[in-house]
Amino acid sequence: MKQHLLAVAVVVGLVATGSASRAGTWDFRFSGAGISGSGQLTYGPDTVLGDPVGAFAITGMTGLFSDSTLGLTDVAITGVVPIAPLAVPKDAPFPASFSTYPAPNPTHPGEGISYTNLFYPGGSPIACPDYPGAGGYLDVFGVMFTLSNGYIVDLWSNGTWPGGPPLSYGAAVIDPTNTVARYQNDGLMLTAVPEPGSLLMLGTGLVGVLSLGRRIRRVA
């Protein structure tokens, strides 16, 4: 019986980690505080020297975005804003991909909206020296993506820490005039959407393991 359970664990592990161990695509869904979206991001090896170990570069994004407060419903996600790393990178733990978009930041007057376009299948590390949050699919600066109506959205993770609040995500919605029309610091959840192929592999693997167990019991 222990051998059967071990085999099941191996099958589940292979399916769960296979897509995260290489470049590819990741299906997602996020929602909270009247903001929602779903789609697929494309990621590849992160070639920026000075970025955290385990990070992948987000190279594309498609899907739909809604914000009930702003009256946006199922607006197409068309891509990501290219990163523009600083000429002189900030010291660690800031990722070298740290970039800023020139829209006034409501929480940091005089600064833009920061982003890195990094994806962390295994959870982000601490990326800001004065903030302990870590562990999300994105870091505390997040991914900045474009919409078909000219809006831009930054989606980030607030992370969590021992004794801290549960992990949540935030978003800033920038209108075509480069004004931050909505700044939601937390209250969003970002989750992975299992791919149909992965579910089929998992189901097939489990059926195979269970069938093997029945054959072994009959022989015994």
From TrEMBL:
Keyword terms, alphabetized: Signal
Location of the Ice-binding protein C-terminal domain: 192-218
One Pfam family linked to the record: PEP-CTERM
Record's signal peptide: 1-22
Keyword Protein biosynthesis in record: no
Signal is among the record's keywords: yes
NCBIfam families (UniProt xref): PEP_CTERM (TIGR02595)
Designated name of the protein: Ice-binding protein C-terminal domain-containing protein
Organism: Aquisphaera giovannonii
